[in-house]
Amino acid sequence: MNTDFPPRRVVITGLGVVAPNGLGADAFWKSLRAGESAAGPITRFDASELPNRIACEVRNFDPGNFMERKKARRFELSIQYGIAAARLAMDDARAEFSQLDADRAGIVEGTSVAGTETILGEHEVYMQKGFRGVSPFTMVNAYGGSGCGEIALQLGIKGHAISLNTGSASGNDAVGYAFDMIRGDGADVMLAGGSEAPLVRPLFGAFCLTRVMSARNDTPLTAMRPFDKSRDGFVLGEGAGFLVLEELAHALGRGAKIYAEVLGHGRSCEAYHSVAPHPDGLGMHRAMEKALRQARLHVSEVTYVNAHATATELNDTAETKAIKSFFGGHAPRLAVSGTKPVTGHLLGAAGAVESVATALAIHHREIPATLNLAEPADGCDLDYVPGRARPYPIRVAMNLSCGFGGKNSCLVLKEFIRA
Fold first, then answer.
1. When comparing pLDDT for 115 and 216, which is higher?
2. Full-prediction pTM beyond 0.90?
3. For 304, which of 140, 165, 172, 397 is 20 to 30 Å away at the CA?
4. What topology is assigned to 10-253 in CATH?
């Protein structure tokens, strides 16, 4: 990397989404700003005997619109979603990797349970038919890092392809990794995001046992209630989100549309508990501190925080404490909202999809709402933008993600100003 010159500016020039609430950035944003939850009864498998029977499923998805149908049939859903979202992002950016210097472009994908669908399915086949019944494509699908490789193959990305797994912080970390690569002169263009397809019966059953999902099976649209007194967990979802990050001069040189600028990324690990956050949100605080320090901004310059907001008692309380401790007297002036009630919790893809949401909020100058928040819980006393989206010129925004094992990730995005 070149250390003789100041860090290069990095901008977002393309967005691609395959989400339960919409395919493509336009449909995704329309649903998000309208507050239309995608939650509903599970149709992917028979959940009648489970205590939790609702999810946010991707509907009306045809992989043949994004890749050869013959190849699509070989891939599990996490790979299909990733390829589709990546292609949508590149189309939105009007960029072609074939026209770029191969060594100046790359892809990084975050995921946490990619391959689970294949491993569990092929295990059943093995038990019934033996090893000769197992699909040879298991080697592609079961490998957790294959998604970025298949995307690279589909789009002709020859610089490098990286997979990250930091739990539910994976998608955010992928964008942060891409930002660091371009900022440090390791690349000019990066495709970054995450993909996940966790709606598999045994995995879903395990989530049921941990009691982190909402049991409001009869009212799925209002089931997920971040920061609300009656919250009882998240609704699991699936999908993918990708962003095209580009060095500023490179983007301006080809007349690219710019959604926002990326200014900083911070990571931390609490080393506190396997699944629970530190009750005081110490790791979240440190991730935000690192991100804003890299961005060279003051806390008073931040307008909006897209929160992790899982609607679990431990996370919502710890996240609120972290925001209050980090922002101090500026915390009451912040807008803080959680978009998972619309999309569901997409695990490793959550941070990427929420990075897309944050970039669109800056671009459209509107803050998405936190749905289903009727009565704030004790200790949850910030401005969570309840009920409906709020038109507002967002100067600087943060996207905060947290993963099992105390992994935290924070991105800082800013309204793009050319000067």
1. 216
2. yes
3. 165
4. Peroxisomal Thiolase; Chain A, domain 1 (3.40.47)
